[in-house]
Amino acid sequence: MNDRTLQFHEVAGDEVDVGIKVLDTIHTRSVNVHSHNFFEFVYVVEGFTVHYFNNETSFLTEGDIFYVPQGVYHGYAGLHYTKVYNCVFTKEALGDSFGELLSLPGLCGMFDQQSSHWNRIRLSPAERIRVAGVLERMYEEQQQKDAGWQIMMKALLIQFITFFSRYYVKHYMQDETEKAYLNYVIKLLHYIEDNYAKDISLSDMADYVGISPDYLSRQFKKVMGLSPVVFLRNYRFARAMQLMRAEPSMSMAQIAAAVGYKHISHFSREFKAFAGVSPSEFRHKYTEI
Question: Using CA atoms, how far apart are residues 168 and 105, in angstroms rounded to an integer?
Fold first, then answer.
């Protein structure tokens, strides 16, 4: 693992004294695993990528928002076009508001330096517009630097963090009807995590959850933004990438079998469609991130 730790002054530039910086970033290649001595929110505007967070591998798509605490290692794998906003800041930038923000739902894992937990929220279309609007205003403030821009940056950051907490409550602490939908999704996610190496179908997933395949697909896509079948495929590729990094002695056929593919040709074809390169090319070029 690369033990690179980014310092705030390396990314903040002219905004180092303010303690807040918003980056409008486009990724077309992998990003090395790293940590940093500041807090970070990441919002995926367009595209998709595989994300490494400590020992967890996940698949990020448009509309995802999550935080990265200080000192936690994370990175990205994939060759696809991915546009993100990175909102980075120091504890000092929040001033007296830090304690109040710490008490909000969904944020304790961000500000606890001993935490390796992360909360990822997949925003609705309306929520995306609101979040992107705040980030765009912050970006404009730091570019234009009109009178009082430092005060405005702090106010917008507090607003942004508060939105994250509210959306956390909405997505993970909803009313009973919404909780029922979410419970189906959570139950299926656990099923996929335990059974992705097996030959499972949408019908198998629906039978396990206890609802019809069509209803499961609608509710899963409502929460995750992807159908269960597409999510399963992407999850398998994320696990395959993880094995390529962690188990250099495993052959590609063994990796394919370990993530649920009976035939290496099928695995190779779908992996290339997903990642833009063959599994062997990916292993050769991108397993050292």
Answer: 7
Query: Which structure tokens are listed for 86?
Result: 């990175």
Q: Which residue has the higher pLDDT, 59 or 147?
A: 147
Structure token digits, residue 158? 């507090």
Q: What is the pLDDT of residues 111-124, one digit of tens each?
A: 765 555 667 888 88
Residues in the chain: 289
Q: What mean pLDDT, rounded, does the chain reach?
A: 86
Report which secondary-structure segment, H or E, holds 47. strand 39-53
Q: Which of 120, 146, 172 is the last residue of a domain?
A: 172
Residues 15 and 158 in one domain: yes
The Cα–Cα gap between 246 and 45 comes to 30
Within this chain, do residues 121 and 187 fall inside the same structural domain, yes or no?
Answer: no
Residue 287's pLDDT is 58
**Where does residue 232 rank: exposed (0-12), middle (13-18), buried (19+ CB within 10 A)?**
buried
Q: Tell me the CA distances in angstroms from 225 to 205, 230, 231, 286, one per residue in order.
A: 17, 10, 9, 27
Which of these ranges, 77-91, 94-108, 162-176, has the smallest mean pLDDT?
A: 162-176
Tell me how crowded residue 32 is: count the other CB atoms within 10 A of its CB.
11
Strands 39-53 and 56-61 turn out to be antiparallel
Tell me the range of 123-132, 256-265, 276-285 where mean pLDDT is highest.
256-265
Residue 150 token pair? 């430092």
Question: How far is residue 124's CA from residue 1's CA, in Å, rounded to a whole number?
Answer: 35
Q: How many Å apart are CA 130 and CA 136, to the nearest integer?
A: 10
pLDDT attached to residue 79: 54
Of 153, 172, 191, the residue that ends a domain is 172
Tell me what the mean pLDDT of segment 200-220 comes to. 93
Residues 122 and 213 in one domain: no
CATH number at residue 91: 2.60.120.280
Q: Which of 105, 206, 164, 150 is nearest to 15 (CA)?
A: 150
